[in-house]
Amino acid sequence: xxxxxxxxxxxxxxxxxxxxxxxxxxxxxxxxxxxxxxxxxxxxxxxxxxxxxxxxxxxxxxxxxxxxxxxxxxxxxxxxxxxxxxxxxxxxxxxxxxxxxxxxxxxxxxxxxxxxxxxxxxxxxxxxxxxxxxxxxxxxxxxxxxxxxxxxxxxxxxxxxxxxxxxxxxxxxxxxxxxxxxxxxxxxxxxxxxxxxxxxxxxxxxxxxxxxxxxxxxxxxxxxxxxxxxxxxxxxxxxxxxxxxxxxxxxxxxxxxxxxxx
Length: 262
Prior knowledge:
This protein is mainly α. Helices cover 76% and strands 3% of the residues. Strands 1-2 form a two-stranded antiparallel sheet.
């Protein structure tokens, strides 16, 4: 398991860094793929609720395109929901159709909308690349600190029914690690972008919301008795497993930047 995990990281990290650096179309395509696979994996995880997977995935694609152009977003949502209900009415069975529609809409709209904020962050004029790197570094270091400290010293479960292996000690270590690494990164590369105070605030918010977001995605997996959302990334699980921390973190960070810096 460790070797595939390392090999995936060796291939994946340079690709992510290149897309972040070039931005524009490269980053856009990367997150189109991330969102597409995340939505499909979500429908697979929640298959016991019988989501309209194909239609929901198509709705997600159209919604992503609407968000990208910034036009007809509300109209896209309304028409898409109308279409989903229309097809639901003519299914062979409408047993548990409320669950079907709810899960389909959640996957198609929520996952697409939240992760699309990664594109919005990268597109922030002048400093978008710095902000998105800051976010990635925080999440990566947060996960690393929480994992190793939690494994070595963790005794008190954080949310045992949702994620049995996560501990309070690990969560605290993740927050501390994120703050320390953020300050180091800021003083090396972002002195013209962020103050130390802003860096600490950003790191605190990202570390708390990132861990919350991770647990939120785990709720669905525990409910459906599934360990990983998929296997597209050997050693790492699914795309949604790798980007679950950004579901809530991306929009919160984006609007925090807008509030504090613009």
